[in-house]
Predict the 3D structure of the following.
Amino acid sequence: MVGRRYDERDVRIRPGRGSRPRTKRRPEHADARTAMVVAVDRGRYTVLLDPGGADETRVLAMKARELGRERVAPGDLVDVVGDTTGAEGSLARIVRIGERRTVLRRTADDTDPVERVIVANADRLVIVTALAEPEPRTRMIDRCVAAAYDAGMEVLLALTKGDLADPGVLTALYAPIGVEVVVTRRRVDPMTGERTIEGLDELRDALAGDVSVLVGHSGVGKSTLVNALVPDARRAVGVVNDVTGRGRHTSTSAVALEVPGAGAPTWVIDTPGVRSFGLAHVDPAHLLGAFADLDEVAQECPRGCTHLADSPDCALDDWVADAPDDTVRAARAARLDSFRRLLVSRLGVEDEPDRDGARGR
Ligand SMILES: Nc1nc2c(ncn2[C@@H]2O[C@H](COP(=O)(O)OP(=O)(O)OP(=O)(O)O)[C@@H](O)[C@H]2O)c(=O)[nH]1
Ligand SMILES: [Zn+2]
């Protein structure tokens, strides 16, 4: 279990620039209603009033000028004013961004010079990885785990195509660092030829009551999972492009979709545009905080210790060596290795070959 940390960088809600008298704004904002941002598309925000409730209303909104350059991300809880009827052609205004419980961000890179909040308030990152076709890329998984732990989110590894390969190796690699693993596989009914996905109920149970962000490379079966979890996913993303048959939002940003039948309000946020996480913003100390046991041991490290494998006198190495027996030693070594892998992944370059030699795509 990862402790959810709150970071001061997460909230930068400034009072509006005081050109208008306060008294004029106050009554207006007193009417504000809280809504959840489900999609962002070129300055237009789709928000839900009473998300998941009986009075759920889909409203299109824009950012009020007083928010300035403040970014609004899918998953944000915002206050909206103005026309919140959701009627055709109506446009509400977002006047406040609520405090964020978690923030999944991406470092600025060559293609995009701005550090972006990808998703706010998500509980969990679901890394969708095929066991074969395409081959799993542990480097990419490591980077996602590091990003999630830095964001204060839990991690679930959804291993798809379990009908094609065994999940044993990957499970052994990630279970020691608190990653929950669910395997799904396609089954084709020999009589009817009907295709179903096994493991879906287990996945839905794991997600129940939470907001989960799904990431995965092309071809891993992410759409298959999303469509199975959210039968009307296509309709939910809004405008469908006649040519591509895809929701218009899918090309631009993350979209939050409600998962029916999970018992409690449950959301998945699909991130079609997110192919990678730049991790330069991830602070090693922050990452260490996601591993309570290691964090405690590392208090004994020499000043400035990087905790990497080549760091002299790292207390984490003593902790492994001093284990009371072989079983504990093996468990500690596995956990330390995994933590170091995440530390290194932070420094790595996106398109380097995987550790196992597979080429990044
Ligand atoms: N054998 C097998 N094939 C699967 C399974 N799940 C999905 N596939 C196939 O894998 C291919 C890719 O699945 P998608 O769901 O389109 O993958 P995606 O990750 O959404 O990829 P993009 O649409 O390119 O982003 C499709 O041909 C699926 O039919 C599975 O459990 N087993
Ligand atoms: Zn150390």
